[in-house]
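Sample entry follows:

_____
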Amino acid sequence: MAKLTTKFKSLKKTTKVDFATYLGVIAVFIVVTVLQNGGMLNRKTLGLLVPICCYMSMAVSLNLTVGILGELSLGHAGFMSVGAFSGVIVSQSLLTAVPNAPVRLAIAMVVGAIFAAIVGLLVGTPVLRLQGDYLAIVTLAFGEIIADLINCLLVGYDASGLHILFNVSGTKTIDDLGLDATGYAIIKGAQGATGTKTIAGLTAGFILVMVTLIIVLNLTRSRAGRAIMAIRDNPIAAQSVGLNLTKYKLMAFVTSAALAGAAGALYGLNYSSLQSVKFNFNTSILVLVFVVLGGLGNIWGSLLSAAALTILPEALRQFADYRMLVYAIVLIFVMLATNNPQFKAFFAKLLPRRHSAEEKEV
């Protein structure tokens, strides 16, 4: 025990913070699981568990782009929708071939991550070479384009495999897919995905959050992560020492998109009916609020703000007339508390030991 304590003390501060983050998430999962098994959570709370995990993963992955890379992306919901609908298609297509739900869910999440990464690569390759707010503009347009494409998408499955049609003219129906007697529709255009077999659960959400944390934190602490942060701080200086700006920007952007796709697949398989309107511009802004409220580059902050801002609107739903007002006031106060120098000085006085320890390390 003494050796473990000594070894832990010898670790870097960032490593200790990372381990504390993992242990914190594990502890919360254990507590929630115990409460769930004990029947101490109501139906509304149970219904929020998987979305909270999805939004946590979304917030952490977007923090990689916005907080660590320093590029503003407004189309994170677009990558989520790519993962959601590709995951639903894979899961529904494998109902007979892979009857085991956890295995089918894992395959769907991997496929959702791959498709989102490919789309992220296609979007990021030309845009990340530009400067300014072009990335925000293009990703915003990308989110709207994806929603329109999904509204035109007709997908079915039968014994001969997948049948896909783009109903651009609006005149085609499911009958035009040519499904046989055993076939069934998966995506019905503007109606979205209906009749989906829900297989998402809290355990899968916990694993997703842990995988997201491991990938993002390890990337941040690596040599590539230091290069990404150097590009964020001063791209000209980073380029002058030989760093390939496009390479490292794409690395962060595609990783962020892939994690959003995996979260989307889990989210999509949590509902029997899913429409593209679920992943509109407001969803991208909501995830961006998670990141900004929690602090740019602050992983713990992203986790906490995603959980709090997912629960808060539902907790205030009984106050329908004042719900959004209270929600906005809470956001304003939290933003003031986290960005006001006087508040920061006040909390620094409350934590003198931590302050002195940081000075010694410096």
